[in-house]
Amino acid sequence: MGLFQFLILSLSLLPFSLFEPLLATSTPLLDDALSLLSFKESVTADPFNILASWKWNQSSSDHHCSWYGVTCHPLSQRVISLNLTVDSSAALGGTLSASVANLTQLRVLSIPHHNFSGEIPTPISKLLLLEVLELQGNNFTGYIPTHVTRFRSLRLLNLSSNLFTGPIPARLIGSGKLTEIDLSNNQLSGRVEVGSKSCEFLTHLKLSNNFLTEPIPTEISKCWNLKTLLLDGNILEGKIPAQIGKLSELRVLDVSRNSLTEKIPKELANCLKLCVLVLTNLVDEDSSLDSARGEFNAFVGAIPFELLLLPTLEILWAPRANLAGRLPSTWTESCSLRVVNLGQNYITGVLPEGIKMCKNMTFLDLSSNKLKGYLPLQLQVPCMLYFNISRNQISGFLPRFGNHGSCDTSIVSSNVNNQDILKAYLGLGLDRNDWIIHDFSWNRFVGALPLFFVGDELLATSNDHNFSYRLLLSNNKFNGSLPIGMVPQCNSFKGFSINLNANKISGEISHAFPVDCLRLTDFEAAYNQFGGSFSGLAISHLVMLQRLDLRGNALSGPLPHELVNVKSLKWVLLGRNNMTGEIPSQIGHLTSLVVLDLSQNALTGFIPPSLTKASGLETVLLDHNKLYGKIPSSFSTLVSLTQLDVSFNNLSGNIPHLQRINGCDAFKGNKYLQSCPDPHSASPANLPVPLDVHKWRSRKKIKTLIIAAVTCASVVLCLLAVIILFFAFGRKKLTRLSSLRRKVVVTFADSPSELNYDNVVRATGNFSIQNLIGTGGFGSTYKAELVPGFLVAVKRLSIGRFQGVQQFEAEIRTLGRIRHKNLVTLIGYYVGEAEMLLIYNYLSGGNLESFIHERSTKNVNWGVIHKIAIDIAQALAYLHYSCVPRILWEVDTEPEEKEKLLELLRLASICTVESLSVRPSMKQVNSSKPLRFAFKFFCLFKFVIKLFEAEISKTNRKIPNSTEFSLQHTKSLTVSRP
């Protein structure tokens, strides 16, 4: 072969050598395209056709690289990223196809916030090059596959907000090169395990809102690069391990909504970069649930001073954490605190002067503690979006807070740019508040009120965010007159509200009323010493005014006619004054009116029929006046009216039929008014046919004789009974009766000396509508705060009702001997000539029945059910085994199930002891009982579901998910427990 022929042959073979790699890679390219098309076939919902471009094209081998959400390698054309991030309105639905595992060069698989369901397919473990796996915000179920620990290149794993159950894979935390793990908002159970190897790469660990149990592992200190640790919303118990102090890079720590106890370790102060510390939280991230998970952390002692003085700490959030001790007095200029919530604790001492060094503080809540002393003069109140020191014992004059320098009102400092820190702020609910609130109420302040200013920067923030301003000064001892222009900047806000109730402020109301505040929404100055005529007050221009409360003052003169022109008014409360004249006939112009209280004045004239034009009217109090004429029949058309009192007037005529009001107390004291009809009497249609007149007269005489005879006999028997009782019981009973005349409250438990009849009446505002928290068949219940921090619920019953007396006696016999934290406690009772009072401890969270009825139209949160189940078990165990004598609660179940339930209660009685030294561990329970705790836990859930069904059936409602599904779901939650 010649040289020329050899060259020709070589050139002819050259194209085949060039295309040989392409032919070799054509099969993987085809596999990638087919895998994507298989993924598309598993999608059952695509409302916006975002996968419309995913179509087969034979003319191009790499056509799939141009499909939406697909990214290919620039050289090999292999798929390296599948990212389907879309708006929620365009969310896809279906299952995750196992064909994704054929994308063997895939680095990123991100399909967040869709509606994919089912389990993660096992073949996905073949994606050995995967670096990012984001499946958050879907409906994936089952266990988290253990093969995720095999992804040696995986850096980010986000499976949050799904329905995963079972334990966290044992070697997941600390495996490979993982820098971020987010498993929050699932239904994971078991303990938190940290791998045996060092997890030096992990920087963010988020396990919030699951069912994780047992103590926080001390091995967490191996993750020494950790910046974010979120463990909130679980069932973790024990103490915060001191080893967390070894996490020198830690910025955010949230352990709220668990069952943690013991002291807060001072070693946390070694986390020199700590910015956010959340120990307890009463705000739920889901505003629709409103703190439904509850807070069960109860720490011991005080927060270590070293922790409070950390120069980097910006958020300290620990309301109702059972904290005691004092606040440090040595804050320096390096203080970075911006948000501090230590409300509802037991902190004592004074509010230290050093706190003024925290010049960037925008949120301070120290309410419901035991603080005394005076307020620091240079406290930056004008710069604070939220300032609350209510319900303490702080005294002295209220200083005039000036604006000492500029205000930094930003919630987050400029040097903080961490997304997780921002999220921590939002999780505390700070972003949802559209009010600037300064609350000084329920203290012991004296003297005249100063002018109140708001910082210029805060005003600018208000203009940007449409903030309203609420100034609360009630229940102090302020005196003197209100300064003119008390809040000079009141028109700079979206709205302005002021509460001056229960002080000793005096002066002419015409001078005190802030008529210049055009954006006034609420003016509350009840129970002060304001006087003068109210009639000449020009208020018609206050078009935003909704609440006007001037009860319990010394106002005189007629009602101002301009009042009826403020059509935004919903609450008009002017009772207990000296007002005269007539009720304006134009009061019907107040069509938004909900509550009208003009009681205990000297008003005359008719009740205007136009009043009933306010279709949403709920309460009308006109008692103890000098009104005359008829009660307007149009009151019968008000379907929302629940309270009407026209007693002790000069009314006449008939009593109209009221749809939601029973009883006669509301009409007594009107001698010209028709007798109140007995609600049990026969209606006119059912009355018997009249007899012959003569027969009727003869029968009337016989009846008269019989009645006279019976009356005489009754009188004689009563006299004999009194004599017998006198000699049988002696002066001891007479002493008791005399004490009742003195209105003495009989108490069962330790209670403050303020628990007497007069204080109860005063604390309830004379049983005012403002303190009404519920009504029932036997009476109404009111909230009362006898002393700061001591709340009670007062049930008021009428002696005129026989059933009410029976209910009263039954509750005294039963509740009088019950003492348990999950059961309502009867503190005391009072019996008078016309009323009876039952006084209970006040439960701010309501009761189980109301919770069920409010939640029955929504998805039932299993974390809520779990904690409710524990509380019910504790309460029932107490009733069955600890209360003397025992109170047996009947369960309508099969005998076998009842035995299991009783066995469960026995277990609960030993597993819910508060003392850690007495309460057995879970391992001890398992070893001592042949039946697995998981099955007992399942029985407990089954019992609670039956309870939910029974309660919801009262209102013909249904649980959103079927019971069978719920039981299976619950069982899957518990079978993995040790």
UniProtKB/TrEMBL annotation:
<keyword id="KW-1003">Cell membrane</keyword>
<dbReference type="GO" id="GO:0005886">
    <property type="term" value="C:plasma membrane"/>
</dbReference>
<feature type="transmembrane region" description="Helical">
    <location>
        <begin position="705"/>
        <end position="729"/>
    </location>
</feature>
<keyword id="KW-1133">Transmembrane helix</keyword>
<dbReference type="Pfam" id="PF13855">
    <property type="entry name" value="LRR_8"/>
</dbReference>
<dbReference type="GO" id="GO:0006950">
    <property type="term" value="P:response to stress"/>
</dbReference>
<keyword id="KW-0472">Membrane</keyword>
<feature type="binding site">
    <location>
        <position position="795"/>
    </location>
    <ligand>
        <name>ATP</name>
    </ligand>
</feature>
<keyword id="KW-0677">Repeat</keyword>
<dbReference type="InterPro" id="IPR000719">
    <property type="entry name" value="Prot_kinase_dom"/>
</dbReference>
<dbReference type="InterPro" id="IPR013210">
    <property type="entry name" value="LRR_N_plant-typ"/>
</dbReference>
<dbReference type="InterPro" id="IPR017441">
    <property type="entry name" value="Protein_kinase_ATP_BS"/>
</dbReference>
<dbReference type="InterPro" id="IPR003591">
    <property type="entry name" value="Leu-rich_rpt_typical-subtyp"/>
</dbReference>
<keyword id="KW-0433">Leucine-rich repeat</keyword>
<dbReference type="Pfam" id="PF07714">
    <property type="entry name" value="PK_Tyr_Ser-Thr"/>
</dbReference>
<keyword id="KW-0732">Signal</keyword>
<keyword id="KW-0675">Receptor</keyword>
<feature type="domain" description="Protein kinase">
    <location>
        <begin position="767"/>
        <end position="978"/>
    </location>
</feature>
<dbReference type="InterPro" id="IPR011009">
    <property type="entry name" value="Kinase-like_dom_sf"/>
</dbReference>
<feature type="signal peptide">
    <location>
        <begin position="1"/>
        <end position="24"/>
    </location>
</feature>
<keyword id="KW-0418">Kinase</keyword>
<dbReference type="Pfam" id="PF08263">
    <property type="entry name" value="LRRNT_2"/>
</dbReference>
<dbReference type="GO" id="GO:0004674">
    <property type="term" value="F:protein serine/threonine kinase activity"/>
</dbReference>
<dbReference type="GO" id="GO:0005524">
    <property type="term" value="F:ATP binding"/>
</dbReference>
<keyword id="KW-0325">Glycoprotein</keyword>
<dbReference type="InterPro" id="IPR001245">
    <property type="entry name" value="Ser-Thr/Tyr_kinase_cat_dom"/>
</dbReference>
<comment type="similarity">
    <text>Belongs to the RLP family.</text>
</comment>
<dbReference type="Pfam" id="PF00560">
    <property type="entry name" value="LRR_1"/>
</dbReference>
<dbReference type="InterPro" id="IPR032675">
    <property type="entry name" value="LRR_dom_sf"/>
</dbReference>
<keyword id="KW-0067">ATP-binding</keyword>
<dbReference type="InterPro" id="IPR001611">
    <property type="entry name" value="Leu-rich_rpt"/>
</dbReference>
<keyword id="KW-0547">Nucleotide-binding</keyword>
<keyword id="KW-0808">Transferase</keyword>
<keyword id="KW-0812">Transmembrane</keyword>
<keyword id="KW-0723">Serine/threonine-protein kinase</keyword>
<protein>
    <recommendedName>
        <fullName>non-specific serine/threonine protein kinase</fullName>
        <ecNumber>2.7.11.1</ecNumber>
    </recommendedName>
</protein>
